[in-house]
Amino acid sequence: MDDINFAVLGTGGIGRRTLEVSEHKDHLTPVAACDRHGVAVDHEGLDVDELLAATEANIASDGGTATRGGTDGGVKQSGQNAGVAASVQAEPTETPIDDVIDESDAIDAVLVALPNFEHDFIPRVADRFAAAGYEGVLVDVLKRSRVIDMLDDRTDRFEESGITFVCGAGATPGLLTGAAALAAQSFVEIDEVEIWWGVGLKSGYEDNRGTVREDVAHLDGYTIEDAREMSDAEIETVIDEHDGVIEFEDMEHADDVLLERAGVCDAEDVTVGGILDVTSDEKPTTTTVSVTGTTFDGETGTNTFELDDATSMEANVNGPALGYLKAGVRRNRAGEYGVFGPADLMPGF
Amino acid sequence: MDDINFAVLGTGGIGRRTLEVSEHKDHLTPVAACDRHGVAVDHEGLDVDELLAATEANIASDGGTATRGGTDGGVKQSGQNAGVAASVQAEPTETPIDDVIDESDAIDAVLVALPNFEHDFIPRVADRFAAAGYEGVLVDVLKRSRVIDMLDDRTDRFEESGITFVCGAGATPGLLTGAAALAAQSFVEIDEVEIWWGVGLKSGYEDNRGTVREDVAHLDGYTIEDAREMSDAEIETVIDEHDGVIEFEDMEHADDVLLERAGVCDAEDVTVGGILDVTSDEKPTTTTVSVTGTTFDGETGTNTFELDDATSMEANVNGPALGYLKAGVRRNRAGEYGVFGPADLMPGF
């Protein structure tokens, strides 16, 4: 594979850790990164260490879409905690995404590491790239099933522009969706896909408040709108009510529609749940994908994929995000445009 | 994905069962099948049930390359056990592969389900397709590491012709190689990939004598040439000496070079072993892929992929073979030619 220049939109936990992981990867050069107040571009390659140090407190709990300009729990506005703008490589800007789009002729892939509290937020970001005639890859790590349809609605637009959009390319959906698609290969009929995750997020909590907020929206009695409007204190209260350990059932995770659109099974046969523990860095339960199906010779069985408890959520999101990004670039360079889920980048079912 | 017309070269256990599995798959139409004495072609789609009934005793222990024309353990020469030629859809032929090549303008993909006792046998079959200007996919389920280099040497030839060659696309290498590539995504550095398989092959033994023969070649003290020259009785003697349960260590399985060429790890960090039990249909051990690596945040862990003991070797070879075939067709239609391993069809590492 040839070299890949990529950009990161958003420098919260996922954006920053992806930049860090890319330092370990061959052929990947980060050339642009932005948050809501700043943009850093260097087509020779960003100095990731410097940028990470500058953005270390860039926790962006609200994903940059709720309390713009606030300082409580958002990006610090001054000193070394001012986000991307604090980097010596960066410029302050009012139009960070447009600034990256302006440079996109020389960018092969863009990781959209922005929380998606408004369901059409990431689709609308993609629209802006398409409107600018971007030819390259967009990758996101979104979770919500309903967003996939919004992206599929844009297939023609992506094809006209030359965009290969890889959606749901984190851990779940992402790594685990791909594992389900692969585990399904033993069977001719899939009865059930169960995705069960464990996340221990004590020391990583500050860095992943956006993710936790989005998880809260999956709890009974809460909507995505509720979670977006809640203050950080209200989020803390919910967590405290669960003594810091929250179990989720039947989450709206896009694994279901991503497996269905790849022809693996019906969306309704996919269940996603898990346990989040913010009191410990140990995982409260082992992350497992179980695929139950029937073989051509009439046997029923369950293939399983298990992540070691020692692998952090960050490792399981950021490695796959870059892995799918590479797969997307390969597709893009072969002239394949449109919307791809993780399971579309696996052997066909 | 659009409809795919495919052919099968060889109607031993793998070829026949792949035809059977394809009946459960959308968009896959088998249009040609051959063994050494017969060829069946129907561009509207073969009658698989009839063909399977006709070839049921087509055990081809020697893979069609050793005792041509013999009747001991090879294809029966008359009646309903005469192989493909016994099918009402087929014609007898002296040149079965050439006959399929003659039809290949209308064939999207060819599964090469021939044993590869001569290491260059499958590469030479590919040469014949390339010489005829075939534009499409070739898929094999070969095992030996050294064959991959022979295929890579032909990359230019494949690209000139328009061939996408997907190699090692069975269970191992194949499904398990892909699982290893996916499991590696949590890590930035891979320490070790261990592939361990269990096969219970009592009722399926007659149908898979070629596979067993090839396995014997992996035993200490035996070479591939030994295994090819041995009579069926000599093979039986080896099996009896092990009381029907043979354990294999450090097998030369192409998983190693396929993972290395995909950039996942060094070939020497991959080990393949397993247990074959011809006295039972139960698996003697659980087939498992273990990938041990280091995460970006410095943790060491082992991700695992396990196949249910109820899934047969056949299910785990034939599903993936067709899955990778579909992935290969997609690549081919996008204009991507050359040699692809299973891990090349996964997210990049």
Automatic annotation (TrEMBL), chains A, B:
Signal peptide: none
UniProt key word NAD: yes
Gene Ontology biological process terms from the UniProt entry: biotin biosynthetic process
Region (Disordered) residue spans: 61-93
Reaction catalyzed: (8S)-8-amino-7-oxononanoate + L-lysyl-[protein] + NADH + H(+) = N(6)-[(2S,3R)-2-amino-8-carboxyoctan-3-yl]-L-lysyl-[protein] + NAD(+) + H2O; N(6)-[(2S,3R)-2-amino-8-carboxyoctan-3-yl]-L-lysyl-[protein] + CO2 + NADP(+) + H2O = (7R,8S)-8-amino-7-(carboxyamino)nonanoate + (S)-2-amino-6-oxohexanoyl-[protein] + NADPH + 3 H(+); (8S)-8-amino-7-oxononanoate + L-lysyl-[protein] + NADPH + H(+) = N(6)-[(2S,3R)-2-amino-8-carboxyoctan-3-yl]-L-lysyl-[protein] + NADP(+) + H2O; (8S)-8-amino-7-oxononanoate + L-lysyl-[protein] + CO2 = (7R,8S)-8-amino-7-(carboxyamino)nonanoate + (S)-2-amino-6-oxohexanoyl-[protein] + 2 H(+)
Enzyme Commission number, as recorded: 2.6.1.121
Record-level Gene Ontology MF annotations: NAD binding; NADP binding; transaminase activity
Entry-linked Gene3D superfamilies: NAD(P)-binding Rossmann-like Domain
Pathway: Cofactor biosynthesis; biotin biosynthesis
Residues noted as binding NAD(+) in the record, renumbered to the chain: 10-14, 210-211
Active site: 143 (nucleophile), 214 (proton acceptor), 218 (proton donor and proton acceptor)
UniProt modified residues of type Allysine: 143
Listed InterPro entries: BioU-like, NAD(P)-bd_dom_sf
Quaternary structure, from the entry: Monomer.
Protein name: (S)-8-amino-7-oxononanoate synthase BioU
Organism of derivation: Halorientalis brevis
Name of the encoding gene: bioU
